[in-house]
Write a structure and sequence with these properties.
By secondary structure, the protein is of the alpha/beta class. The chain has helices at about 15-20, 40-50, 65-75, 90-95, 100-105, 125-135, 155-165, 180-190, 205-210, 255-260, 270-285, 290-300; strands at about 25-30, 55-60, 80-85, 95-100, 110-115, 120, 145-150, 170-175, 195-200, 215-220, 240-245, 265. Helices cover about 40% and strands about 20% of the residues. Strand 5 (about 110-115) and strand 6 form a beta hairpin. Helix 2 packs across helix 12. The chain is globular. The chain binds 2'-monophosphoadenosine-5'-diphosphate. 2'-monophosphoadenosine-5'-diphosphate binds next to helix 7.
Amino acid sequence: MRDAPLTLDDLSSRERLDAGHDKPARLAVIGCPVAHSASPRMHQPALDEAGIDARYIKLHVEPGEVATAFARMRELGFIGCNVTVPHKFEAMAACSVVDPAAVEMGAVNTVRFEESATRGFNTDGPGFEAAVVEAFAIPLAGQDVLIAGAGGGAGGALAAHCARAGVRRLILANRSLDKIVALARWIEGHHPGLTIDTFRLDDPLLPDIARTCGLLVNTSSVGLKADDPSPLAATCFGVGQRVFDTIYQPPVTAFLAAAESAGAITANGASMLLHQGVHAFRLWFPGSEPTAAMRRGLASA
Ligand code: ATR
């Protein structure tokens, strides 16, 4: 299979890496697994359209090998890479410099190999904000936001970005409390003046509070399977609320279906996928305008 993931062994030399290809591999997405990644389908058309002589590859990297992968890519003159599950935390540790926003989000999803630094960023937060603006035509600043399933990596990144973007109120809800209480205190430490409330998903007080929020977001993995229930009870949703699911496959989760039934305006995570990619591309190629090519690449997949 032509676009099957490569491994660290394939990075042993330029000759081996690029054998049979017109363009040199200079960008990658690393993950474990990584075969499903949509990133090459977005980035390659944008590279081609901009006339950049580079190939974007999928690279399978086992846990514990992220630093080695970075070192090999640097040696081969890579421009940068994207980082997907489960390496977003290990990648942060393997960078020599980490953007302060990524430190707050606790994870790195984009890396730029510079002459004297391996610099880490997180474009999931900005990608989420761009998706909210595009889907709902509202700014994130000033919103009352509830994040459901905030105990994982995506929830932590989005919660930290919401604080940075200047939301008015931030409420975190999760199946278990320990992780989101720690997350809330961490974010409050960076944003004095912002109070973050935490609830268990089954807290009987949650529906009344949820209905006062203008923006509800699901960052849990509940919804990835077709028969998953909604992580929030139907009574949490109300008319005119904006409801965003970071999941894009399936396109309509039980969370979004329940929100729509209650008269909310909904969007799935497809535009977040696009915009986190756009932000990454611009970190590698400042001043570029890859959005249209990336959107077409995703749509044709
Ligand atoms: P990560 O993103 O770090 O890989 P994850 O295990 O995929 O984490 O979980 C992401 C989020 O989905 C967490 O908030 C998790 O809740 P817990 O912190 O309580 O584990 C949530 N989640 C996963 N399965 C769930 C379920 N069946 N019901 C409710 N929430 C669930």
